[in-house]
Amino acid sequence: MIVALAGGVGGARLALGLAAVLSPSQLAIVVNTGDDFEHHGLHVSPDLDTVMYTLAGVNNAATGWGRAKESWNFMAALAELGGARWFNLGDRDLATHVLRSEALRAGHSLSAIMQTLAARLGVRHALLPMSDHPVRTRVKTARGELAFQDYFVRERCRPRVQGFRFAGARGAAPPPVLQKLMRGGRVRGVVICPSNPFVSVAPILAVPAIRAWLKERDFPVVAVSPIVGGAALKGPAAKMMRELKHEASAAGVARHYGRLVDGWGIDCAEIGRAHV
Fold it and tell me: Which residues on neighbouring strands pair with residue 31, listed in sequence order?
């Protein structure tokens, strides 16, 4: 069994590649939920949904998020009524948020809900939230601390980043399926996908049991760099690295992870740029 740690578009793309060569009994994908939030009364799980839609083949390849063949009638009607529309929810995408929110209110766990939704879309590999407990990424900026979606979407990543806080992480535990994997001795390796190290992977590692499991591991951890040619494959990772005084390169990412990672996958454009 290989466990992939994923978040966002970069994580979804590598997860899709891994799923193409590893059977459902050989691969489990653990996804960041630090950017989950409540919007218009709905529980939105952006990274979980991006990975799920990508594995199901219904993702919007042009935007990197949301569903293909999307329409926006809900957002248009919302704007007519004066509602907030800084975070777009497509009509097809809304179905996921509505069903997830209803199930959460009925007392079902996020991991159980995602298992059901993913299966209904034809996803056969295990798709697991990092925790069923709420963990929320807070971005420390020159303008003060911001909820992740306020920083990422409303402010379009403009504020200068000074650090991060993962509210609720100390009390969070992995979902039961992941706990069973961690205890069962079946895991032969972990792959850290080319996701943002600070806001996609770090929230997963902030769950104490996951961090301890990786520190005590008897299997290799391999990571794929999200930085190519000094730029992020997607999103603000390179900007964040520069603002936090890290080198925006594969070597800078490797230094950030340190001894947690045993082997690296990097683009040829990064070879020779810097030494770890």
Answer: 6, 129
